[in-house]
Amino acid sequence: MRRRIRTVATAPTRAFTPGALATLLYAVVVFPLALVGFVLTLVGLLVGGALSVTTLGLWVLAATVRGALALGAVQRALARGLLGLTIEEPVAHTGRGVLGRRRALLAGRAGWRAVGCALGTPFTSALGHAAVLGTYVYGVLFTLHPLLQRWNHHTVRDSDGTTHHVSLEVAGVQLDSWPRWLIPVAAGLVLLAAAPWLLRQALVPHRMLLAATLGPSAADRRIRTLEDTRAQAVDDAVATLRRIERDLHDGTQARLVGLAMHLTMIRELIGAGADRAQLLTVVDTAQGNAKQAIADLRHLVKGIHPPVLDQGLDTALATLAADSALPVEVVTDIGARPAPAVESIAYFCAAELLANATKHSGASGATVTVTARDGLLRLDVRDDGRGGATVGAGSGLTGLLNRIRTVDGTLTCDSPSGGPTVVTVELPCRVDPAGAGGAATERE
């Protein structure tokens, strides 16, 4: 009972927490800002449209679009600082020279979407402004009614000529005396208690409008993603070439140099008539260097493209499961063989996810499920470990996501605390009707 009373007593004070006050400040500031932006944008469009037959009209329209973009930047900053709503900046397209910049402003989608935002925000922000008046303003007035009635009143003259003060009257009933003034006080406390929730709900249309018009469009976001993945692919290729060069220089090349030296030594020993035992010792050392060089080359080639993938993804995953430290069940249902690049990405994703499960999850087993149908390859790796895996937390998932994005794939991770962890990778792939397919289940 005490906890319930304490909760009821503190509910109205939640309207004055830092987060609630930040939302209140946003609703108060954004409405007049939206009105000013609406008037300026509308006037600019009308004047620019009327003068569009002349060069001056194009400059007015360009200035209007530029002003809408600046207003959008202010709106994004306010939403980020007061609401915690982060909206990406739209992709900016600039031209060369003054005429080029004007052409870019008038032809760019981001500018006209900002214009639409400037024309629409007064209507959406008005809801938040009305919520402030209906909750905070009237909530405070009703709550402080017993104190404010001394100053906030009007004089009423009765039929007999006497006068009296009336502060609050509803349906002919005056609420200025005890205990009637408890009614507005209770109503004010209820309004203040509900104010943060009501204000957030009133601002939902405004938030949706900002997110839809001030951020990058779907096409721009797609272009940005492709640019990022292309840059990541180039960086990965450079890193791979450097790793191969380092491995060849530090490993295979050194062993081949040693092999050449031992062959030279064998030739000199044969010319000098060395005994059989000394000659066999040098031959054994040279043979060991040759075997190790071959092993290094095989390991290097396997890191680039596992030879087992030539037999198909299902066979490669079965081999991977056999080499895993965990008991792994592999289930494949591949209708037609995917492209080699997709097979390679799926294989390395499975290898990394199984390695993560072995090192970090404490799992006792894992399941790898692969399906390829209708142009989509889906890889699910599930383990019964402790869970808690997240993308970007040092678990290697970030690297996998970058690799997957190079072919426009997606990665999702469902890993609640306590497990299980399920990582799903989806890769688009071309389906060859002539390809062989089948289903297989392997238990290791």
The stretches of 5 or more residues where confidence is low (pLDDT under 50) are: 1-9, 432-444
Return the average pLDDT rounded to an integer: 76
Report the principal-axis shape: elongated
**How many structural domains in the coordinates?**
3
Instruction: Evaluate the radius of gyration.
Output: 36 Å
Widest sheet: strand order? 8-9-7-6-5-10
Write down the secondary-structure element order.
HHHHHHEEEEHHHHHEHEEHEEE
Helix vs. strand class: alpha+beta
Biggest beta sheet attributes: 6 strands, mixed
Write the layout of secondary structure elements.
Elements: H1 2-10, H2 18-50, H3 55-83, H4 97-107, H5 109-143, H6 145-148, E1 154-157, E2 163-166, E3 169-170, E4 173-174, H7 182-202, H8 204-213, H9 218-272, H10 276-304, H11 313-323, E5 328-334, H12 340-361, E6 366-373, E7 376-383, H13 397-405, E8 410-414, E9 421-428, E10 438-443
Helix pairs in contact: 2-3, 2-5, 3-4, 3-5, 5-7, 5-8, 9-10, 11-12, 12-13
Keywords: ATP-binding, Kinase, Membrane, Nucleotide-binding, Phosphoprotein, Transferase, Transmembrane, Transmembrane helix, Two-component regulatory system
InterPro entries: HATPase_C_sf (IPR036890), HATPase_dom (IPR003594), Put_sensor_dom (IPR025828), Sensor_HK_TwoCompSys (IPR050482), Sig_transdc_His_kin_sub3_dim/P (IPR011712)
Transmembrane segments: 21-50, 56-74, 111-138, 181-199
